[in-house]
Write a structure and sequence with these properties.
The complex is a heterodimer of chains A (about 325) and B (about 350). Chain A is mostly helical. Chain A has helices at about 1-25, 35-60, 65-85, 90-115, 120-140, 150-155, 175-190, 195-205, 205-210, 215-240, 255-260, 275-295, 300-325; strands at about 155-160, 170. In chain A, helix 1 (about 1-25) runs parallel beside helix 12 (about 275-295) and helix 3 packs antiparallel against helix 4 (about 90-115). The longest helix of chain A is centred in the C-terminal third of the chain and has 27 residues, at about 215-240. With about 350 residues, chain B is mainly alpha-helical. In chain B, strand 2 and strand 3 (about 180) form a beta hairpin. The chains are: A mainly alpha (about 325), B mainly alpha (about 350).
């Protein structure tokens, strides 16, 4: 089992390298420091969302409400901090946005766990309800004047270098935030009881209960954690684009799910790793951002995302046709 | 439990409960909207406008019903509808020769409808093949094909609308026959076809069986793969018909039309009591549910709610209905357990 998983992730890594080489040959600009740093920055928001999606997929469910949680958290933070003309530490803006995310995650968890309803349909409802809520009860305008700490954050970058072409190449701090959150998620999944519970829940619900896990606790943890990540991704996105747009993010859920599935997480639960997800996110970002570098018009993007998703979900199945004979086991 | 569900008295009764509940919800919403919009809601004009707009959603919902009965889902219906209708529009508008005679127009319309159905079948076969042969989760398959189909639609149109369809074709979506809207006839006819398909044919009985227990169905000799393929093809064909209705009614084909229909179609099916685990669902329920949603939507329009408020309400409505159904089912199960307990004591 271990070997098979290893091959899946190394297999994605190989595709990533081969694809990058092809793009690089067509357009050598791909390998410029500026472009690579840019790519790393654009994996951040998708990646943080994907870490949350990973947890839900491992637990055997599908959640699509996370972009709405991100938007609501980001927009409320933007509105409130604009109104009070906030100028305290940046971390407070992050905590505020993350906190709203946790609250919305809590609503998801309460509905899903109390009434034992399928996450997909609940989150289809909450997706619509959350983004409708912001647009109806808060505002529909785009906030261009972000609070001071968020602006400071948006300029926080390392390895600043001026290229020969005069462009500035820099690696944004967000990338390290992303890595830290990925490490945290990996630690939780690997070394904590609740993390093992998430895998167990995706493997077999009944067995998890018999083994003494509190399913309620696991579910509340998953959806609150997803909410937290979505809230953080929202505020980071807002800092990256330097505005808070209530129409943003929603509609991008499929891209994130595709990245996570590409990274080896399986719908149906029980399997998935953080490093696989990082690779999947990287691959899908490279594919999406390189279409333009390769001279393919941007209206091909939607088709490409869908196609990559289908390929990504079909390939493990071709492999598992063989492994069906031997019973599947949860990776421990 | 098993004995109970076989007992001749219990089964039809629970079915009626579901339908009765739906009818009550429907009446409540109708009355509420009539009170909130005095003199506007109960008018011939409103009924007429409603009878033009709900059949599209109705057809999409019926397709989803078939897939949900098998225990799957088809999220690609809107993508299929848009892609097939764009291909049809392309043929009718751009391939049409100059100054056509009415016979040529008729021929092209006929061809365009044929093209829409052929590509609908292809779309359904792709979904069905990936679900039944590759055993990929239907949610993922149809999320992917939704993107692929609407992606192709965007590539074909480059994001622009295709306007000015031939006049006779517009009759399908806007015309009237014996005082009633054409789309209404199409919806009623197809609803009856689907009802017969589900109740009276081997295909229909098989997919209920598959949705209840796929493994048992396979051992019972049902060709699961074939039946699943047929289910997804039926759904895609209904979606193509809905797509043709859409372009005929709006007189233009657009790649991103009706994105919100997917949430509404799921909502209609849940309201109709179609079981998302598969194995249960009735056409009459879907028909009543889609009309109910239309009452709600028209009523909101008259109250000058904006679209965002409607999104919010529908999201909340969807979750409330799920919770309500869950509580009702739990009560039913408890009652059944009580009866079973009483029987075992006897």
């Amino acid at each position: 089992m271990r070997k098979l998983l290893k091959t899946h992730e190394s297999y994605i890594a190989v595709i990533l390298i081969v694809f990058s080489l092809i793009v690089g040959i067509i357009n050598p600009k791909f390998f410029s420091i500026g472009n690579l740093f840019g790519l790393l920055k654009s994996t951040v928001v998708t990646g943080i969302f994907a870490l949350g999606v990973l947890l839900v997929l491992i637990s055997g469910e599908i959640d699509i409400s996370f972009p709405a949680i991100g938007v609501v958290s980001m927009y409320i933070t933007g509105t409130v901090f604009e109104a009070i003309d906030f100028s305290g530490p940046t971390i407070l803006a992050f905590l505020f946005s993350g906190g709203i995310g946790v609250l919305l995650g809590l609503i998801n968890a309460a509905v899903i766990s109390t009434f034992r309803l399928p996450t997909l349909i609940v989150s289809l409802g909450t997706l619509s309800a959350y983004s409708g809520f912001v647009l109806t009860f808060i505002d529909t305008r785009i906030i261009n004047r972000l609070s001071e700490p968020v602006v400071v954050y948006s300029k926080l970058a390392f390895f600043r270098r001026t290229m020969e072409s005069g462009q500035i190449a820099e690696l944004h701090f967000s990338f390290f935030v992303y890595l830290a959150l990925a490490a945290l998620t990996a630690l939780i999944l690997r070394y904590t009881i609740i993390g093992r519970g998430v895998y167990a829940l995706g493997g077999d619900r009944q067995a998890t209960k018999r083994a003494g896990f509190s399913i309620k606790k696991i579910e509340y943890f998953i959806y609150c954690y997803v909410g937290l990540l979505a809230g953080l991704a929202g505020i980071i996105h807002s800092a990256h684009v330097r505005n808070a747009n209530p129409f943003d993010l929603v509609g991008g859920e499929l891209n994130v799910i595709a990245a996570t599935v590409l990274g080896g997480a399986i719908i149906g639960g029980g399997r998935g790793t953080v490093h696989g997800t990082l690779l999947g996110v990287m691959l899908i970002t490279v594919i999406n951002n390189s279409l333009i570098l390769m001279g393919i018009p941007s209206y091909w993007q939607r088709f490409t995302t869908g196609f990559v998703l289908l390929i990504a979900v079909a390939i493990p199945q071709i492999g598992s046709v063989k492994s069906i004979r031997t019973p599947r086991r949860v990776r421990s | 439990m098993k004995i109970l569900s076989n007992s001749p008295i219990k089964l039809p009764k629970t079915k009626d409960n579901n339908l009765n509940r739906l009818i009550i919800i429907s009446i409540v919403i109708f009355v509420l909207m009539a009170i909130l919009n005095p003199g506007k809601f109960i008018t011939m004009r409103n009924f007429r406008s409603m009878s033009y707009s709900f059949p599209e959603l109705g057809l999409l919902s019926l397709g989803l019903t078939i897939c949900m009965i098998t225990g799957g889902i088809d999220l690609s219906i809107v993508g299929t509808a848009n892609l097939t209708s764009i291909l049809a529009a392309k043929l009718m508008v751009e391939a049409m020769p100059e100054n056509p005679t009415s016979a040529i127009i008729a021929l092209y319309i006929f061809l365009a409808v044929g093209v829409a159905f052929i590509f609908g079948i292809i779309a359904g076969l792709i979904n069905g093949y990936l679900v039944s042969t590759f055993h990929i989760h239907p949610v993922l398959v149809t999320l992917g094909t939704w993107q692929v189909f609407s992606g192709i639609a965007i590539i074909i149109t480059r994001g622009y609308a295709i306007p000015n369809l031939p006049k006779p074709f517009l009759f399908v979506g806007n015309g009237r026959f014996l005082g009633l809207a054409m789309p209404l006839y199409i919806f009623l006819a197809l609803a009856i076809v689907v009802a017969v398909l589900l109740r009276k044919t081997q295909f229909g009985r098989s997919i209920y069986f598959i949705g209840t227990n796929a493994t048992a169905a396979r051992f019972a000799g049902i060709r699961v793969r074939k039946m699943l393929m047929r289910a997804y093809v039926s759904s895609a064909l209904l979606a193509s018909t809905a797509g043709l209705l859409m372009i005929s009614r709006t007189n233009q084909a657009k790649a991103d039309y009706g994105r919100s229909y997917i949430l509404q179609a799921v909502l209609v099916n849940l309201l109709a009591g179609v079981n998302w685990h598969g194995g249960f669902g009735r056409v009459i329920g879907v028909a009543i549910a889609v009309v109910t949603l239309q009452f709600l939507s028209s009523g909101f329009n008259m109250l000058r709610f904006n679209n965002f408020a409607r999104d919010f309400t529908w999201g909340v409505f969807l979750i409330s209905i799920m919770i309500f159904n869950h509580l009702m089912n739990e009560r039913k199960n408890r009652l059944e357990a009580d009866i079973a307990g009483a029987k075992s004591v006897e």
